[in-house]
Amino acid sequence: MKKKVQIIIKNNNFKKEHKGKIISVFRGYAFNYLIPNGLASLANKNQIKHYRMFSEIAKKEEEANSIAIKKIQSRIEQISKITIYKKIGHNKLMFGSVKEKDIINWIYKYTNIKFEKKQIQINDINNINISLINIQIKQNIVVTVKLCIMPYNN
């Protein structure tokens, strides 16, 4: 009888090992703790093949996702400035302010890329000026774009 058995880890938080990794552990540890608590399963040919197939699919999806993010980043970096026209009154004050929604609509109109409000980081803009805004494409990818607020009268 073997002292150690091979198991496949089902959770990412098990001893700093990632999901799908095959490790050898003692029989008692495997059958009394890991398998009943759903942290691992016994490694047989079919399950090993199953986890490898899913890990390959996950890698391909991750690669496709990173390529799409790089395309979006390059398209946003090509924008030299975002120009938004706002109505001004007699005393040279702007009606309202520029919000994330205005910037999202401008980007969608000219690049056909949709963003969410939380991805656009701007300060309160209540006057006619030129400022910088940050567009967060992914958690660690941020692009800075120039924002120009231009006046117009009716």
Automatic annotation (TrEMBL):
UniProt keywords, alphabetically: Chloroplast, Plastid, Ribonucleoprotein, Ribosomal protein, RNA-binding, rRNA-binding
GO terms for MF: rRNA binding; structural constituent of ribosome
Residues in Large ribosomal subunit protein bL9 C-terminal domain copies: 70-149
Pfam families noted in UniProt: Ribosomal_L9_C, Ribosomal_L9_N
Transmembrane regions: none
Gene Ontology cellular component annotations, sorted alphabetically: ribonucleoprotein complex; ribosome
Entry annotated with the keyword rRNA-binding: yes
UniProt record similarity statement: Belongs to the bacterial ribosomal protein bL9 family.
Domain called Ribosomal protein L9: residue spans: 17-51
GO biological process: translation
Oxidoreductase recorded as keyword: no
Protein name per Swiss-Prot or TrEMBL: 50S ribosomal protein L9, chloroplastic
